[in-house]
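$ run holo --ligand "adenosine-5'-triphosphate" --emit tokens
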Amino acid sequence: MIGLGNNDALTRKRANQDYIKFWEEEAHKLYWFEKWTKTLEWNPPFAKWFVNGKINASYNALDVTVQKSPQKAAILWEGENGGTRTLTYDELLNYVCKVANSLKSLGVKKGDRVTIYMPMIPELVVSLLACARIGAVHTVIFSGFSSQSVRDRVYDSKSKIIITADGGFRRGAIVELKRVIDEAVSDFDFVENVVVYVHAKIPITLGKKDRIWNDLVNNASEYCEPEKLDSTHPLYILYTSGTTGKPKGVLHGTGGYLVHLYSTFKWIFDIKGSDIYFCTADIGWVTGHSYIVYGPLMHGVTQVMYEGALVFPTPLRIWDLIERYKVTILYTTPTALRMFMKYGDESPNSKNLSSLRLLGTVGEPINPKVWEWYFKVIGKMNCPIVDTWWQTETGGIMISPVPGLETISLKPGSATRPLPGINIGIVDEHGNDLPPETKGYLVVKNLWPGMLISLWADDEKYKTVYWSKYKGMYYSGDFAIKDKDGYFWMLGRADDVLKVAGHRLGTAEIESGFVSHKSVAEAAVCGIPHEVKGESIIVFLVLKEGVTSSKQLEDELIQHIRNLVGPIATPDQLYIVSKLPKTRSGKIMRRLLKAVANNENIGDVSTLEDEAAVDEVNTAFNDLRKTIHRN
Ligand code: ATP
Ligand code: MG
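-- output --
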């Protein structure tokens, strides 16, 4: 049993009795200018939480703590070049007010969209909160995106203002953000101004619409009254990672979203006033919105914010940050962990990581082997791991251990059980509940406060994507299994499920099998049609540093998967590559492998991290095509 000694059975009991009443009680923990008159209004498939309640996200994130402990550090920032900054809650509020007033001076009004395209610097957090303060809808675009991706998203959201920086630092290089913005939006008449924060101090071209951040902000007045916004007022638009296709503009409201984050952050991270929290996600993704900006700040947390690559200039970087800042909670991704593992144990072992007390992961299924490494090498077997399942659409975590509430035994590779108030099911094609230990589709059966309010300017798509497969249940698009103890195991995306000789296999099952081999760093599988078996399995592997590929190793790997998962999982083709196609959020893009393997159009790849990976996959597949033709 691993947990931190809390045993609050009452919370689950209350949630089971009446989940709407339960969330209503949770909502009282936030600051509302006016209380709601109705907790939940359900006009399928559109939900409104805390109807007529008046709230402000920046007030809950800043003013609430400033009134109690203004001098507490909110952000301990470190740049890739080693520069540091500390911002207290008081300073952060002051800064947010000035930026909010600056946006007002540019004519930004409640409901206007503001695109934010910035490196991981405090001004990014400030920009989000400044929008929230005045009721503008922020839409953050990850700063690694190219001009075409930025263009598509700005066009979709019709942002009036863009906030950017001259440049940012990433892996020792400078990313020229302002130049990307110039390319992306200069012919959009609806964009009225581009605000540029000078960070990298590189030459930039200034046009008629451009405003320098400091010129605006330094003269702005120091206090900005928070807008008293409807609970259902849109807080932001955020485009999904685009792992399965074209990114969707997920729209989140304010009151329900904040309630979900307030409660989940407390339960899952068991947060204490003395904690130093470090989430390695980029604010360009939902993890950053929910668990760097809104969740932690509402709890008055002190957190580390890091600008650059976690293994730059050496793999020691992340461990060094943890040692120096005495980080107590680390929240990262399986992709990052596999990368750290690939470099070996020496780096983490050479640093003092004893301040850590809790570890978390998000974004992909965590392979049990990686979980064990995280637990032993990083957590020294003293830190529980919270494997948190959720989506951009869910707004906040849905399935996870809750050390802040209860003692629970962990199983490596399982996100454990749904949170109190969250009702998750595994169903078949027709929406019927499946018995334990049966693979199926993951659905959410009750509404939850963090849920998306729609897709931006596309209610129809919102209905079709999430609410048309099953009546009255939210379709997640994930494939999973619930075991006899009620623990959930994510098996991969529903669209990627392989059907081999009458068996359905999730990609994660086979991939984790390969990753459990000592020579394998990463694995991706996909299927191609096979006349007899239905589908045959193709696997791409990246080996650990220093391991070389050989026929003997390939045979050993095939034998390994046969022993572990069964002969059914035997791949027909196995390729060793140096990198896999991944989204910029770090997830493996299996649909791309599948498309290439099936000789189909590869579709939207704007969210791809590294184009070179496509070439490598294409080369491998050209070989594959030759083999298929020979057969
Ligand atoms: P798109 O919807 O555009 O294809 P995406 O689904 O990758 O992009 P996100 O919302 O960032 O965009 O990711 C959510 C998905 O990530 C989930 O549906 C799930 O497949 C995966 N995921 C997140 N956390 C976990 C976890 N702890 N275990 C397993 N899978 C996870
Ligand atoms: Mg998704």
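-- notes --
The two ends are 53 Å apart (CA to CA).
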